[in-house]
C-alpha cells in the first residue's frame, strides 16, 4: 500500500492554527467612578463583556485620580462597591475584573502611600505622563512609587508631547525599569498619525513594556485584538509578551535598583 505523504502546511494554514495569547489589559475605565469612563454599572458591564468577547481574560479597571477628581474615602468606597458588583457579573462570562487606579501626577500624590493605588495585588501602580509640558512631576511621582518597592507603569508615553519631541525621555524611563505602557488605540491610529508613529517607535526600539487598551466607552472599547494583530504582523511571536501580562512584576515588593 502506498503511503500518502501529507503536504507541508502552508503558511496560511499555520496562521489559522495559531493560538492567540491570553490578553491581560492593565488599563481601562470600565468601572463608573465619576470620570470620563463608564457612566453606569450597566455600561461598564457591557464594556467588560465586549472585552471578554475580544480575547481579554484579565482586565484592570483603573479609574482616574485627577487633580480635580482626587480619591477621598467616599469616592473610593463607591468605586470599590461598583467594582465588586461588576467583578461578580463578569466572572460569569470568564472575565477576571480587577481594580487599580490611573494617577495623574500632582504634588498631593507625593504625600500619599502609593500602595493605596496598586494594580490589584501586583507590586505596580499605573500613572500617566502629561500630554503637554514637562515630565518633571511625573518623574517625581514615579520615584515616589519606586521608593516603596512598587513598579511605575507609565501610561501612554507615546501621547506625551515631551516624548514626541525627544524619545530619549522614554528611553530614560525604560532604563530605570519603569514599564512603558503603550495604548492599543495609538497603535491602530485612533489618536492620529503622529501618535501612531510614536507608538511604533517605542515598540520597534524595544522600549514598550506592554500594550493596554485605555478603553473608556463603546466608541473607544477595551479591546486589544486589533492592536495585537498589528504588532504580531511586525514582531511575530515576540508580540505575545506585550499583551499576555508576563511583563508585569510579581511578588509583594520589587527593588528596581537591583534589576537595572
Ligand atoms: Fe486612562
**Tally of distinct domains:** 1
Q: What is the arithmetic mean of pLDDT?
A: 93
Q: Roughly how many Å is the radius of gyration?
A: 19 Å
Order of helices and strands: HEHEEHEEEHEHHEHHEHH
Which kinds of small molecule does this entry bind, naming each only once? fe (ii) ion
- Major beta-sheet overview: 6 strands, parallel
At the fold tier of CATH, the topology name is: TIM Barrel
Low-confidence stretches: 1-17
Q: Give the full name of the CATH homologous superfamily.
A: Metal-dependent hydrolases
Q: Approximately how much helix is present in the residues? A: 25-40%
State the helix count. 10
Percent of residues in beta strands: 5-15%
Number of strands: 9
Widest β-sheet, arrangement of strands = 3-5-6-7-8-9
Q: Overall 3D geometry?
A: globular
Known CATH architecture:
Alpha-Beta Barrel
Q: Report the structural category.
A: alpha/beta
CATH class: Alpha Beta
Terminal CA distance reads: 63 Å
Account of the 3D structure:
The protein has a single domain, classed as TIM Barrel, CATH 3.20.20. Helix content is 37%, strand content 14%. The chain is built from 10 helices and 9 strands. It has helices spanning 11-17, 41-53, 73-91, 136-147, 161-165, 168-175, 184-187, 193-204, 225-235, 256-259, and strands spanning 23-25, 56-61, 64-65, 96-99, 102-103, 124-128, 151-155, 179-183, 208-212. A 6-stranded parallel sheet has the order 3-5-6-7-8-9. The chain has a 3-stranded parallel sheet with strand order 1-2-4. It is globular, with a radius of gyration of 19 Å. Residues 1-17 have low confidence and may be disordered. Bound molecules: fe (ii) ion. Residues 27, 29, 102, 155, 214 line the site of fe (ii) ion.
